[in-house]
Amino acid sequence: MLARDLGESLRQGVDAVLTDLRLEARPWQLPLEAIRTPVALWHGDADRIVPPAAARHLAAVIPGAQAQVLPGLGHFMILDCWAGSWTG
């Protein structure tokens, strides 16, 4: 599924992917401390792309947010959870 989705995302070129990367790399204009809705963050402790510290940071900045770092899961943990192969 991931390979198919990646192929589809690049079917018309790389411009959209590059735009996403540029947006992610610059400071966010969203005042995270102004978020007032409940926020739950799940992050795998084996993520080699985005460190678990990122989820902990967001949880510290967003009022009332909670981060749960899940053992043994990586960046694409949703695929493991979706497939039912994670038993956490």
Strand content: 5-15%
Tally the beta strands: 2
Structural class: alpha+beta
Instruction: Give the strand line-up of the largest sheet.
Output: 1-2
Give the helices and strands as they follow along the chain: HHEHEH
Range of helix content = 40-55%
- The first-to-last residue Cα distance is 23 Å
How confident overall, as mean pLDDT? 88
Q: Which geometry do the CA atoms define?
A: globular
Overview features:
single chain; 88 residues; alpha+beta; two-stranded parallel ribbon; 4 helices; 2 strands
Q: What does this 3D model show about the protein?
A:
With 88 residues, the protein is α+β, with helices and mostly antiparallel strands. 42% of the residues lie in helices and 11% in strands. The chain has helices at residues 2-10, 15-25, 52-61, 77-83; strands spanning 40-44, 66-70. The protein has a two-stranded parallel ribbon. The protein is globular, with a radius of gyration of 15 Å.
SSE topology sketch:
Layout: H1 2-10, H2 15-25, E1 40-44, H3 52-61, E2 66-70, H4 77-83
Parallel strand pairs: 1-2
Concise structural overview:
The protein is α+β, with helices and mostly antiparallel strands. Helix content is 42%, strand content 11%.
